[in-house]
Amino acid sequence: MSATPDGPATTRAAGRPREARADRAIVTATLELMAEHGVHALRMDDVAARAGVGKATIYRRYRSKDQLVTDAVGALVSEIEIPDSGSTRTDLLVLMREAVELYSGSLAAGLMPTVIDEMSRNAEFAGVARDRVLTARRGALRSVFDRGVLRGDLRRDLDVELALDVLGGAVFYRLLVTGGPIDERLAENVVDLILRGFAPTPPRRTKTPTTKDGRK
User: Fold this and answer.
1) How many other CB atoms are there within 10 angstroms of residue 215's CB atom?
2) pTM metric for this prediction
3) Are residues 96 and 28 in the same domain?
4) Spatial separation of the C-alpha atoms in residues 168 and 186, rounded to whole Å
5) Residue 140 Cα distances to 44, 50, 79, 144, angstroms
6) Residue 160 sits in which domain range?
7) Residue 53: inside a domain, yes or no?
8) Any domain includes 216
9) One domain, residues 46 and 116
10) Max alpha carbon distance in the chain (Å)?
């Protein structure tokens, strides 16, 4: 017996888009409110009102405000495709340009200072935020550096953690401290700094012994 238009099959099919719309609306509302008022001032009632959903709908998806915040920020910054062009410089430029595009935008620029501030206030939130936002992303970026080492573009004893800090550090320093431009020039300069600073150490040249009359 086939399902009628009002039957279960039709209900399930229609339910999926509504659920997806609610998910997107909740995340968008959360990000916007955090950028406007800060993480500390975020209220579930305000998220529900802006998203156009009931508060119960939010709590079915997120156990707490901290989970909602970290998942929303994670959705904004952690999705990344690792390039594999065959060139270490090109791959690093792709990643830096993506970071420049993200953090030069008004939403991420407004979000990150308040997220960092909340991390300094709340150790539990800081741990979750690092795991949700940073750990997976840094783990993925390692593959670019690993390939660079294998190609001989980067030194074999590369300190990958330091290289990752250099890759993102300049962006966050300008975003959070100096207010300097986050642009294409920054992306290129950081990549060139990494390639020069972590370049393979050239082998030492051994001197050919000379005879007493000066001949080699």
Assistant:
1) 6
2) 0.76
3) no
4) 11
5) 32, 34, 10, 8
6) 74-197
7) yes
8) no
9) no
10) 106
